[in-house]
Design goal:
The structure is a homotetramer of 314-residue chains.
Chain A (H helix, E strand, L loop, with lengths): L10 H12 L7 E2 L4 H4 L7 E6 L4 E5 L5 E2 L4 H13 L19 H6 L10 H12 L4 H16 L5 E2 L1 H10 L1 H12 L7 H12 L1 E3 L1 H7 L1 H4 L14 H14 L5 H7 L4 E3 L4 E6 L3 E6 L2 E2 L6 H14 L5
Antiparallel strand pairs in A: 1-10, 2-3, 2-9, 4-6, 5-6, 7-8, 8-9
Helix pairs in contact in A: 1-14, 3-5, 5-8, 5-9, 6-9, 6-10, 7-9, 8-9, 12-13
Chain lengths: 314, 314, 314, 314
């Protein structure tokens, strides 16, 4: 069964409405300031790009301005890790919401070094360890970068080395979680190498157009509908979407499902990738974050978009 | 946009296949034994009923044998409470997954008496308090029972008074949670009355046909497609489904979304209500529970059904 | 080996010095206000009484004004329960500090209904259950009251019935903990009866002179040095003191040991019983509480007293 | 006021009795096996040494055989850190029992990187950071070693470099805690340097005679009664003893106080330093550990010694 865009929907008009309605909110929220490169970003930026399964792309605002994708990268790293080790991945990381206002190192201790899901930091570090596979971290970083370039059909995508270095310099909590998981035997590669791969992955820079294009395989049953290439099996694409739905927004995942009704993954750089299954891949970007660390205006824009298009899966 | 059953799908055939495949699993799992009435249930029972949005009903197995719906009732109680107080409900109960292998009284303390969501026990007790509205608990119980009779279009639905009494006799932990929330000011009615309403609600007896029929408004945008009656707004129906998706299976909600890809709510009596939005309402029943307290065979049957029908929302 | 007061010490002079030094602090802290009877107490009250093992009594301030002993009663209830069931008590309650800024219901869940120690609320409720022994709560209350009258050699000691009723009316959190322990099978008597005994025990009214006199058996190896009566064995007296040292001031027990260096037990009414082993029993009272719920001026007075007398056990 | 040994006590006889009574227990418990050097130790070893405040030394068993003092070193490091920064230390580390069966990284998160006390691992890492003072870790290690050599009046005391290296190789959990505290700003020196100092401190090798001698200043009001040297003020000595009493045996500190009634600090190498204030410093060693990680036979020996001498502070 496929869900095609309602022919009555004029996507360009809807996007224009959404953007206009966001005007009053632009600039709200708090730009991430734990590293200089993020804190310098103009809080008034707002971009959106939608690529539909039939190949149409609609954009608005700063859709072609690059930003740091940060945790949005976790969805793609999860895809790569699942392709490498298959369902065996789930013996090392769960797929349940973290569901705690408290930071996940508590959960790691209660659950003996097994992170709750691959979309929170410790889970993504395990995923990076799987991709690293005890080899040179440069190979792992290249693998992730190449995956994104291929999926976005754009070889210009780069890693922001200043961001990567800043992440490493300030990443004491991530380092703590990596050593903690190692003490439980749930990290194989050297901590330094695993974190290097992880920090570089978070420092990838993309724009909304590239990001929406890159996520399209998740909206179309695992096949890139434009190139025709099968990226993952249909079952795997659906399951990745399921994990995004229940775990993609940290401890506000339930809230995002409630308001937007679509699988999505946010990053602290203000980007959100959102999947309308069988219909479209959506990327929004606005740097101001809400209290739980997700893009404030981006979340509002997606809620409104889902209302106007009727794309909610519920 | 509507998602209608694929015309290629012969639902009766699919249900027959699912039932046959479940044969090898029938009897697995552990029947709830904390009260006598539940422990006496034959572990080899299996029933399934599907009611589609266009009014077709397909059943198999013990679909007309009554069972204790237990926590499945929480979805209907949530509906009633939302109709009574609207979105104000969310100031007294969250909508995030509980996400903890540990029992929720810990979360209640950390989060000052606000339960994580309305589908875990303390959240459902708050919902019962809202429905009770400080009046006679019999009125609250009648309200819930009448709602289910109307939705299932079957006035024969009853409360099993032996189950209700047993719940009250053994419900020390629920009583503890009720008093604990009261200590934070998040319970208005007398604890005894609120729990009485809650325990009776859990003791409602239905069969799969009644349950699937009763949930149909959630599959069709809030309107009962058979009677044409609007039960809740479209937005509310979607949001209830979203809460079921992220919170409907306790600390295995992520797992259910991963495997089945549909909003659902399980009960310790072995029943699961599952919604395929715009398509169908499904009820399965098999008393043996898996390690996390959800129907073992019921979960497998729904996973297989979703695969064969392609009804996953992802 | 005995530790007798240093002959150079003039206890009356020291007490006069302590009282004078406290003048600048009198009135500091926050009087308990969760029940009316406590909130009405004048925050400027300060009393102290010391009874030495050789029968001398020194007092100052409001030493003969009655106050609600509240949790100080837990030491005497522990004594009674140990005499009733002996060391078997420790299978139902631990003797480790609770050590958490978070309320102990979290600990109860982690440790399956076994409270950390008998001097925190859930532990004292288990102790009350042991004393109750499934009989009439009036018998339990009488037993505790008679013990205190005998130990203080003063039959005028009473229960403040207004306080007892207020405790019952507002004790939702204690009720929650009682039901929670019952759900783990760690409460034998009816919850209502156990709590009734507990709330009445907390509502006992004594003055500093009575309280210091009542605790004297703990300062003199389990024997009342004035009447010559053996109350508990020497080993038991020492062990009760040990529990007071490590657990007597909730999550500030380490701090009290650090500053005062003597076993003690505080109550929310502003009283503290403090034992100088082989030397003296001390009672102070000042209603203003510090941030952790112990008498602010009382703690300071005991610290200064220990410095001037050299009574610290360390 | 001083507490001198009861003249009736013949310490040599008592020690002989204790040792004989321990015969039936020798070999019980589980020798630490997380590093090879510890796992190789003969579980049947038992040594005891007592040095009294008047300079008498009594020994029995393997009292002159060196062992790894491990966490016993934390008492001496605490002394050095307090001398360096005074009471300001307490802004970076608490003095309350950890009071949790769960590992302390949970507490670190709840309490924002401030360890509960200086005698648990994260607290001792903060203490090492204070001693390190952002300088060469070799200076910190030398400072601790020299302190122990001076206190034990024995310049032959060494660090076991194999143990130090093994600690570093397996110390992922300690490394995690160090990075975690750094993320809260509660670690000034480089993590590698702080841990190097900490791991070397734990790898110091001493025998019972040396250890009892080294701890004597804590038994005699801060002054070494043999050399006459003041090591710390009387108030500080008492306070260190208080911290040992409430926090010296991890989550069995209450139990140790209950059974032994003296301040003490255990190490995973099987050693325990125990202080009888104004009376004696005691060191026992027996490698087999009980379920909570303290020397099984050592604890029993101290309990019996305290009974026979009457040295309990309670």
């Amino acid at each position: 069964m496929s869900r095609k865009p309602n022919p009555d929907i004029n996507l360009s008009e809807i996007v224009a409405v959404v953007r206009q309605e966001m005007e009053e909110h632009i600039g709200k929220g708090k730009v991430a300031n734990y590293i200089p490169a993020l804190s310098r970003v103009d809080p008034r930026k707002f971009g959106i790009a939608i690529t539909t399964c039939d190949g149409q792309t609609v954009t608005s605002g700063d859709a072609e301005e690059p930003f740091s994708i940060q945790s949005v990268s976790k969805v793609f790293a999860l895809t790569i890790a699942l392709e490498r080790v298959g369902e065996a991945l789930w013996s090392r990381v769960g797929r349940e919401p973290s569901g705690s206002a408290f930071n996940s190192i508590i959960q790691l201790e209660h659950e003996h070094g097994i992170p709750r899901n691959p979309l929170i930091n410790p889970g993504a570090i395990v995923v990076a360890d799987v991709i690293l596979n005890e080899r040179d971290p440069k190979l792992a970083i290249t693998k992730i970068l190449e995956f994104l370039r291929t999926r976005a059909d754009d070889s210009s995508i780069q890693i922001d080395m200043e961001v990567a270095q800043s992440e490493a310099d300030t990443g004491h909590r991530n380092t703590a979680m990596a050593y903690f998981m190692r003490s439980f035997g749930n990290l194989n590669g050297p901590v330094y190498d695993v974190l290097s791969a992880y920090f570089h992955q978070c420092a990838i820079t993309m724009n909304c157009v590239q990001l929406a294009r890159a996520g399209l395989y998740l909206a179309s049953s695992g096949t890139d509908p434009i190139s025709g290439e099968r990226v993952v099996s249909e079952a795997r694409a659906r399951r990745i979407n399921a994990v995004m739905m229940t775990c993609g927004h940290y401890d506000a995942s339930g809230d995002f499902a409630f308001h937007v009704g679509l699988p999505g993954k946010s990053g602290v750089g203000g980007g959100i990738l959102c999947i309308a299954p069988q219909t479209a891949s959506i990327a929004v970007w606005s740097p101001g974050l809400n209290a739980v660390g997700n893009s404030l205006v981006g979340s509002l824009a997606l809620e409104r978009l889902a209302q106007l298009t009727g794309w909610s899966v519920f």
